[in-house]
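TODO from last week: model Oxidoreductase.
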Amino acid sequence: MADGTGIGDPPDGLTAAEIGMWQAFRNGSVYDLRSGDATVDDPHGGHPWGPERSVRARIVCWLLLDGPPALAGRVSSLKLAGVQVTDALDLAGGTVVPYTEMKHCRFEKEIVVPEARFTTLRLVDCAIPRFEAARLHTEGDLHLPRCRIHNGMRLTDAHIGTDLLLNQAVVYRDRRGNSILGDGLSVGQDLQAEMMESHGMLSLRGAKIGVSLSLRGSLLTNPYGKRALNAPQLTVERSLYLTPAGLGNPSLTSGTTPARGTRVQRFECQGGIRLDDGRFGDAMDLTQARFTLQSDQELSLRRVQTPELRFLGEAPQRGKVVLSGAKIVTLIDRSASWPGPGCLQMGGFTYENLVPQGSFPLSLRLSWVAAATAEYNPEPYEKLATVLRNGGEDADAREVLLAKQRRRRETLPLAAKLWGYAQDWTVAYGYRPGRAAVWMAVLWAISAVAFARADHPAIKPGEHPNWNPALFTLDLLLPVIDLGQDSYWQLRGGWQWFAAVLILLGWILATTVAAGATRLLRRS
């Protein structure tokens, strides 16, 4: 192909459409080949675009890699609208300096930009067979909003200088079942993928996001594999949003939570989610999220660390929610968000504050702990009791510890189990000291009536006070305290055994009352 006669003139052999694109590039203006008919211009529709709207991929690459100089007073840039690019657009390893923006375009074959360098690359509402961009480097943004990518996209180890935008994009799986493969991806600021559809596995293993990761209103579905989102060791400096997006005109994909009353589209995931070992600097927000899991799939948050977890979505009907080893400062949750027994694992899960939304009585909180412990494990009970006690709810903390003892009792042999029932019925394992005081009063009354009929000869005749069965009984029941009664009288036969049992019960009950009182004084 021979060059034109003037510097920067179009070379010979270009089509009319390519000559127009060449001139628009030098002028820095938008090259728009749309017809004005929405049906015809739809890049995702079936209406064919002829040669008058087509340019060859290698001419596009020529402009981007080694294009002509800009006209005087202009900045060269490639801005296309309604253009069809034939053949594969291959810029692998190249350095692209001009600003690049393509809107409402069709690509006949894949876009290949691995190890390429761009300032900013914007592809808006384009039809793309595949986007291959491993180790891509941009100084500014990479935008792919409303694009449809039919055979997946690869962004492994890519570095995006500022924002990565995938709002309202639709990405289908590649031959390996991946929709977006972004392992090792680095994004300087936000990764916004709001109201996006991912049909296949979205993988962000070891990715690093400089500000926030937003999947507001998105649909992740992967009927072909175990997980729809696979993002272990993900680092997000601010927040992860799996929350609703506002439905407006246009849709509210602005990175903000919709105002109250706005019609919304929930985040929905059909398939497993793996966020193990993730680090989230501000929060993980799962408000109104919907998870559809199979029996062998999980919402896995193993060992995640974040100051705030907003677990406010819908409870999955199947599968498991796993929080084993997670470290949370503040847990904000609803009772209806947690799955039932056998579907929740919380071994080693630590949190410092509980902020329930709506009604979450202690009975349901205890059911929450029980659901996480198919076999008896004291740890979740003790953690909950500690958090409640630190929050000033000492009575609730005692109820939790009592529930722990009752759960433990079911694992004991028969004799220990019977003794446990006796402790529970009489003194509630010592966690209800008021009940022990009542039992002491009952024992005192019954024993006083009984001792009124007992034979009680004096140990030293003439050296004893008047017989008082109520004080004598109280002297036996109260350990340590000496009321000066029991040392003056002697009992015989069965009354001796009765007195011995009364002394033993007195020690048990008094110790329980003292322990309960000590706990109350410690809290005050």
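Done. The radius of gyration is 37 Å.
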